[in-house]
Amino acid sequence: xxxxxxxxxxxxxxxxxxxxxxxxxxxxxxxxxxxxxxxxxxxxxxxxxxxxxxxxxxxxxxxxxxxxxxxxxxxxxxxxxxxxxxxxxxxxxxxxxxxxxxxxxxxxxxxxxxxxxxxxxxxxxxxxxxxxxxxxxxxxxxxxxxxxxxxxxxxxxxxxxxxxxxxxxxxxxxxxxxxxxxxxxxxxxxxxxxxxxxxxxxxxxxxxxxxxxxxxxxxxxxxxxxxxxxxxxxxxxxxxxxxxxxxxxxxxxxxxxxxxxxxxxxxxxxxxxxxxxx
Length: 278
Ligand code: SF4
Ligand code: SF4
Prior knowledge:
By secondary structure, the chain is α+β, with helices and mostly antiparallel strands. The protein has helices spanning 3-13, 23-26, 32-41, 73-91, 108-114, 162-166, 183-186, 195-203, 212-215, 229-232, 241-244, 249-255, 267-277, and strands spanning 17-22, 47-54, 97-100, 119-120, 126-127, 135-142, 172-173, 176-177. A hairpin with a 2-residue loop joins β7 and β8 (176-177).
């Protein structure tokens, strides 16, 4: 299959950018455990495709992170990547094509950077102008050897350091993101938080996720709106304690089916809301 055909297919699926690289190259960024998991899913993996899907839908007021307001990208992005897989399956009948988003052993950001998609942000994110870092990444793992577009590694962002300075938990450093200090992680974490982590969550305006290191980034000053209806329409921008009152886990998941903020159940959201509304 030609690169031009794939170009058209990714554009039709709504991708703002895509790329591909040999699995052996991406494996340089993977642990032995992750390589083993990838090989379990796809024996003799040869190629990884990666694509970016924009999600910025504007500035509605709400206490949910921008990424969590539309349909759940864990569902939407693999569906979109699967349209590419279906095309490839017709051509390469004996090969496997496995779509994923955020739930595979593949390091998606490293794949995107190695393909030269956008820029490498100091905040650890992939920046794809004009959508900024407001993009979801999806991957396809395959045992087929595919023709791939030319590529060179992503350049670094301008390195202004605003993301590091603005991070409330001091989670960003040269070693990447410290998840024990990152509010994106802590607002979603079940169970006990340390007193310091609790104080961070209490002082944070969102009850799910954290957009701070994205909001301050100059590449996100005027992001283009997503063309994808799944991330632009039917948004849930915020939650209150009353929205969740009396719901069982099952009722909560039914009420907010297909939303990314449901995957840890209602407990972390209730806890965070109680702290805000106390
Ligand atoms: S998401 Fe928030 S807490 Fe996490 S690194 Fe970015 S600014 Fe810091
Ligand atoms: S805020 Fe500055 S340093 Fe951080 S990712 Fe954006 S451009 Fe890079």
